[in-house]
Amino acid sequence: MAIKSDNKQKTVSGIICLTTVGVIFGYLAWMMGMSNMLKTMMYTAHDLLLNTVLYLMAICVLTGALGKIFMEFGVVHIIEQLLKPLMRPLFHMPGVASLGAVLTFLSDNPAIISLAHDKRFSTYFKKVQFISLTNFGTAFGMGMLVIVSMMGHGYFVAPLVGLVGAFVGCIVSTRMMQRLVLRDYPQYATEEVVDGEENANYNVDDEEHETKDSLFVRILNALLDGGKDGVRCGVEIIPGVLIISTFVMMLTFGAGEGGYTGAAYQGVELLPYLAQKINFIFQWLFGFNDPHLVAFPITALGAVGAALGLIPTFATNGWIDANAIAVFTAIGMCWSGYLSTHTAMLDSLGYRNLTPKAIASHTVGGLVAGITAHLMFALITLIAGNGIM
Of 111, 232, 284, 331, which residue is 20 to 30 A from 64 by alpha carbon distance? Predict the structure, then answer.
């Protein structure tokens, strides 16, 4: 009886799966043409592999080496002591987690993985904190690039307001992720990422290593070991980036100037179309004055770099203002393509099954970041006047 029930359940789930896949790809093929759809899918994935994944791998290598140097010579311990009073009340994270925020701010989301794979870094964390590193680090991903890009368009105060909004969104996302994890795994509140025996052995090895090796050898080993960790992390993020980013971009971008040709980064613009149907919500929450502006947060779900490419078009058409820049900065930093990286990041950390919780938490965090930036900008404008940029 149980076997029949199991077979029936598999049959039903199989039919649902085939129907869902058929509807999605049937819609894409109907809009783009079967040949163009397949070409775009392959060319987009290929371009992501060459120009995005390898770029991210390079970032992982460099930040992995930098993080290893910081850990080898006690910088991590100093940061832990200085920022512990701030990090624990706001994020329920050890002060050393701030190193991850700095590295992701200067580079991109996967930089946090390079640190997380280092045992000297992970020994500071309980499991629930370690898991929420994905949300915490992502909220600052590519922050420097986003802020500098916005300032390059002549806005200076608005991006800083957006930075504060992203900080608030990070608190919400990190805390919400921890709460969701503890609801199903309460033991993670006290379990260590590295058990006591392994941690003790690791520290003994470190002490012998520091005693026997010269300064030059310690620096060289730290750089090379960190770089190797970065290469491994770069390989691990390939599936998530290629599969999810390709799919999101095909639903976000439109046809080229000459129509559908099968080129990379073409799509059906379904997500922006649906978002425009409820533009009044975005206007109320974020203060958007034009429905086209919803394309930025939609695109930022998959890739904030692609979202930044929309700004010149917005400016040319007169759709953008300082409030939108503040909101874009907050959402762009906080989300920073999390839909395409969260799966890969949690898979790399060994908690793939918690991906839905991370995505749900970060979705809320990004919305809170945008709302916070809008309200803060409105308040500053009310106090300082309309000339603020």
Answer: 331
